[in-house]
Amino acid sequence: MTIGTNTDIYTRRESQARSYCRAFPVTFSKAQNATLTDSDGRSYTDFLAGCSSLNYGHNDPDMKEALIAHLAADGVTHGLDMHTNAKAEFLEAFERIILKPRDMDYKFMFTGPTGTNAVEAAMKLARKTTGRDTIIAFTNGFHGMTMGALAATGNAGKRAGAGTTLGGVVRMPYEGAMDGVDSLAMIRAMLDNPSSGIDAPAAFLIEPVQGEGGLNAASGAFLKGLQDLARKHGALIIMDDIQAGIGRTGPFFSFEGMGIKPDLIPLAKSLSGMGLPFAGLLIRPDLDIWKPAEHNGTFRGNNHAFVTARVALEKFWSDDSFQRQTEAKAAYLTERLQGIAAMVPGSKLKGRGMMQGIDVGSGDMAAEVCATCFEHGLIIETSGAHDEVVKVLAPLTIPQEQLASGLDILEAAVKAQGASHQIAAE
Amino acid sequence: MTIGTNTDIYTRRESQARSYCRAFPVTFSKAQNATLTDSDGRSYTDFLAGCSSLNYGHNDPDMKEALIAHLAADGVTHGLDMHTNAKAEFLEAFERIILKPRDMDYKFMFTGPTGTNAVEAAMKLARKTTGRDTIIAFTNGFHGMTMGALAATGNAGKRAGAGTTLGGVVRMPYEGAMDGVDSLAMIRAMLDNPSSGIDAPAAFLIEPVQGEGGLNAASGAFLKGLQDLARKHGALIIMDDIQAGIGRTGPFFSFEGMGIKPDLIPLAKSLSGMGLPFAGLLIRPDLDIWKPAEHNGTFRGNNHAFVTARVALEKFWSDDSFQRQTEAKAAYLTERLQGIAAMVPGSKLKGRGMMQGIDVGSGDMAAEVCATCFEHGLIIETSGAHDEVVKVLAPLTIPQEQLASGLDILEAAVKAQGASHQIAAE
Amino acid sequence: MTIGTNTDIYTRRESQARSYCRAFPVTFSKAQNATLTDSDGRSYTDFLAGCSSLNYGHNDPDMKEALIAHLAADGVTHGLDMHTNAKAEFLEAFERIILKPRDMDYKFMFTGPTGTNAVEAAMKLARKTTGRDTIIAFTNGFHGMTMGALAATGNAGKRAGAGTTLGGVVRMPYEGAMDGVDSLAMIRAMLDNPSSGIDAPAAFLIEPVQGEGGLNAASGAFLKGLQDLARKHGALIIMDDIQAGIGRTGPFFSFEGMGIKPDLIPLAKSLSGMGLPFAGLLIRPDLDIWKPAEHNGTFRGNNHAFVTARVALEKFWSDDSFQRQTEAKAAYLTERLQGIAAMVPGSKLKGRGMMQGIDVGSGDMAAEVCATCFEHGLIIETSGAHDEVVKVLAPLTIPQEQLASGLDILEAAVKAQGASHQIAAE
Amino acid sequence: MTIGTNTDIYTRRESQARSYCRAFPVTFSKAQNATLTDSDGRSYTDFLAGCSSLNYGHNDPDMKEALIAHLAADGVTHGLDMHTNAKAEFLEAFERIILKPRDMDYKFMFTGPTGTNAVEAAMKLARKTTGRDTIIAFTNGFHGMTMGALAATGNAGKRAGAGTTLGGVVRMPYEGAMDGVDSLAMIRAMLDNPSSGIDAPAAFLIEPVQGEGGLNAASGAFLKGLQDLARKHGALIIMDDIQAGIGRTGPFFSFEGMGIKPDLIPLAKSLSGMGLPFAGLLIRPDLDIWKPAEHNGTFRGNNHAFVTARVALEKFWSDDSFQRQTEAKAAYLTERLQGIAAMVPGSKLKGRGMMQGIDVGSGDMAAEVCATCFEHGLIIETSGAHDEVVKVLAPLTIPQEQLASGLDILEAAVKAQGASHQIAAE
């Protein structure tokens, strides 16, 4: 099969909704850790990593081996929400490796297999347990495409997809969203004023780092203040750690060490370890008032994902070495990005951990940088309200040299931009 | 690992929302075609088939082989919506084997990987293209658990999970839902009356056979009449073929041969062939007005599912032999169920194709029948507003003898019920 | 001032929303009982009566005298919700003359001064006391133009005025709305089916006779059955007696003698007796859980209306003679309308009491009949989903001869229609 | 009739929703200009003025005379929306005296007779003309009690009356609502950010001075900036001048001289001049896209109000002397209130024109001040989110000496508070 053929079939049969393939119009055939290979045998370094769904890289050999073994043994593939070995082993590993060492006591809810299902389950449970309707979400937040989660998503383009007005969500500025405005103080003032018109909220729904919204990273002080405010007003904290969690910022949860105890934690993306569809909701045990089957779904029992997720936990989280490696890479990333940002007047470093990028000030420039990178074998994307942030989301497992060479490509692309702009200005 | 350990971990760590595992409290270790095996080595015939997600049975050897080969070759696992070999091959197979022979012209939208994502995408697109808000859904309809799809789901228990009032959906009686009421005439009267208070609808959202709602099967006349009414009033038909499609009633689509051309067709469940999370939306080409990324999602590129789905299409749908086999089994099923129904005064045969069951008149009796079946090695579940329908959803690939022996168990369980009721009455 | 001037000013300065003046394009200067006089001195018999706001006719001399006396004495005009003599006297008269003799125990809530305010207050209170959202309203119902009441109004044209989708209301067929459908049985089936998708309602909101919707009159059996169903499902009955009440059908309340005890009764239109803005909500005492000022409004204390309303109660309702006179006129009206209806093949008599009319089968014909009547000095309007009902809403106080002569004009207009149609057909 | 009787009837028969009568538990019998007289003959100075519905005082002799003459001549009382002399004369006076001299070109829409009807009509038309749903309203805003207007009202107590969640409105801080936050900059940032989650608004709905919300007065710069922002984003400005308009701040409209051209202006309260129920909506002519009867209502033709409103316009607005008198009184009021505020540490002067008051820092203290005033013959009320503002809303026509003596009572009451607090503290 040639690329040409492939492209034709998409034009002919795939919906216009498709997007990434437009920026990277080749056919990918193979993938290993941080490297994608196209059908012509060309290799690309992956700084997109499935939008943080591939924190452990593509096709981790241990996960792959375990999955092949499971398949070969006719292990259960689709298990609804029935008991299976793979499920029990995942749950036990999650309890032993993740929850216990962090002194976290949560119930695990297997929602539908993608992030938006976990967010919807969280929103439903927050409303159900509090008897309130309003969810407070934040500027630039991204939570999913189904009606409930979409109402909490800020992006106007995505919202327009609904074809109708989205309700039940009140919007507040994220930390730092408004120059000169103390967002937390403003939210507090709105909630403390009985005539503000803001109804008592069921929950705050927030990402510790806004991946799609432009790599805005909330401080521990902000999140802690929000948690205090939530407690005061009888509201829950839904900490959407779908993109920032599972090690992306260093620790397993992105909010570790901040003194935060979220009430509900939606997880997805890298949860399966291998990029398989898998999402879950961590629930403070006393809030787990679901009746049996009150929230169900066909693919809650993706046992392939249970197998690889369990391997991922055992392999990467049994001690703190993976976290330390990530933090070291993140420090290197910060250093390199600072150097690159220094080349673009007015640009800003954004994000935290292995979820950093550069706000280059315009979506056009960011797009050009990414296009140039792709020409040189680097897959990298933008984020932000104006797509103005060039975002590095490399697999956490990327070899140091590949991380460096990828950043070299990025640096050259930014430099070329500067040169071409200077030329244009002359 | 012992069963005891497994059960403890669920009690300790899984949300109360879990359900099927309560009725079948064993740990399943292996699965092959229509047979599940528990950790003690006991075998069960599967008349549930992942709620119609396993129409080709568990772990089909050809799909399994193809998936292992894909894994071994480091084929792309998670591909966002980028071009991959597996995706192109799936799309081409779908076009060649499904669309062309049926003279169907649709775009394929890769929504999130579960049915509710496809339904939400359909509802959004219907509203967006028509500029209208109201979706007309039907009594006993089941469409998913996210806010948009849940609004269209009839079940009060599921709706209560929302914790808030669900809007945007108007409810009409499904064919036969009201004794003595011609549902279609009633819907027509409501839409034709400009003071009825029913706003011009964006779409009708309907299942050709209501799987969860009690195996209610709409006639071709009803669906055709609905389509005519939709055309007259500028509304779309969203034909939710998630549970009834992919061969469950015989043909690939459950509405084949009825003269129906739905505008939007959500698919999921058995689409991947192997029970992997995969959903899609077929879109009438002129309605495909999505902007790039207007509806996105992390797991739209589950390449494992593309691989197995393609194998499934090639293996089962390249000619009509599979459909004929299914129809033959369905005829046998009808015959056996008629015999069983005759044993329960007032009971009724429900459904169509390999999606049939018996309304035994009470949820308690249906639950007892299912529990007795499970004791004898048959996994079978109920459906309906009062869980009053014992539902046979065996894999279409089930060997004839196993279908027969499973029905023997069911027959015996129903007979035992009759006996015990008679005894109780004496 | 000439008429010309007047008409100009409307074209120049009044919103396009104006309507009745388009059908009756003269300037009215005086009004006494059932007679309106225009600025040219021409007299018209009023079969519209302010859409049932002038049940006692225009400018009743006793009400007028009392109001002039109140004005002359500098009685309070605008009293917010403070205690005034006029208010106390109205409340005492209402208790003594209306509530006590009927053994009705209700609290009186002074809502804003027009019907929609009373309906909104009722909807709010029904939701607040039940903790439920859904109000079940009926095909062809008319309840007002503000967002809450408009959601319950059926007319598509009025609904379009909202510019947005109206929520919180589920629509059911009114008695007789669907040929061959037992509306009550259908509603019962929908509420008894836990998977119908109809959420448990806060209330049924219904007009005993639908004035705007086409003079559809519910039977006592239907209303009683609805009340039983409401009790069973924990819902309230809001009996909107705004147009049908205050004597229009004979008794003070249109549902008297049917064994109905509504939970909430919005009143307006003829409540003030003289056409002054005045509305109220009767509340079953245990449902009166409003906090002080929880529902307020500037014009709840229209003392002029209290004065005239009190006079109306004392003058017309101290004994049953007025009701008997109305019933006698209604019998005469029925007889005459039967005669007229007999002249139009396929036409139907609609309504009850002094709220009757003829469905002539088409809005065009009804409009022509009304236009012809106006040419001959009779003000009469249409109602119904297609404006197909010629509606007689004469003041209840209309002299018998004037009623007769008005009906003569109507009869002649209908006859002329028949003649012209016959001619056209020839 | 004794007071005792009166009070009993309210307890027995009036809804708990009643409020002002609780603070002023006497029965008022007469009212003239700024003086109310109770049934025992005691007089009170009225600093409440029907919440600004009696800007020209109670029972203005000229309006009274005109109304008695209209009654005596059997002028039309209730005219639906038909042409009458009284209506034409009102419209012509409004055009000649109000619109033309101010170079304002608006259509007048006769909505239902109270403020909330005018606000609802404005919200509907804004949504209808823009095709958008979201109305941006402000903290502490007050717009009415029907579902649409209530959604825009900030007060939590009022909102709780809905018994359901109110949608379609996004809340922004009013000028000065948040310490250290530039409200206009914040709103601009939210609208300019395409990922803020704030949908493009149909309109801003704002009161130039927030009467109920605590006498917060927006500056011309803020309102002008808002208008510029609205123009930029294709949104309308709905200037709710119901309480602040009709001369309350000096000029006829409270926003005169600020360079503001609102798109829609709801008016009510003092519009009739005499406290009769009357509301209207001024519409920018090109936005007047209503279809005939698209928004209707029973009491749009309250001819008594047309008569008195016309007299009010002719008497008070034919030249600028009334405005100048009001401004002189307002200057005196400012001076006196500054003196009184100086007696309460931390208190603040609020408001503008004859709509000023003192924020005394606590609702308890404000209530005690008002209670003491009432004991000394002054009717005065609080406003604000915590009822912390003692609000002076005297008739604009109040004689200077009576204004002075009323303020003497207020000053003494505040002084007494100070003394008692000092005593309590000692």
Automatic annotation (TrEMBL), chains A, B, C, D:
EC number from the UniProt entry: 2.6.1.76
Gene Ontology molecular function terms on file: diaminobutyrate-2-oxoglutarate transaminase activity; diaminobutyrate-pyruvate transaminase activity; pyridoxal phosphate binding
First-level EC class: transferase
InterPro entries: Aminotrans_3, Aminotrans_3_PPA_site, Dat, Ectoine_EctB, PyrdxlP-dep_Trfase, PyrdxlP-dep_Trfase_major, PyrdxlP-dep_Trfase_small
Entry keywords, A to Z: Aminotransferase, Pyridoxal phosphate, Transferase
GO biological process, alphabetically ordered: ectoine biosynthetic process
Family to which this protein belongs: Belongs to the class-III pyridoxal-phosphate-dependent aminotransferase family.
Protein name as annotated: Diaminobutyrate--2-oxoglutarate transaminase
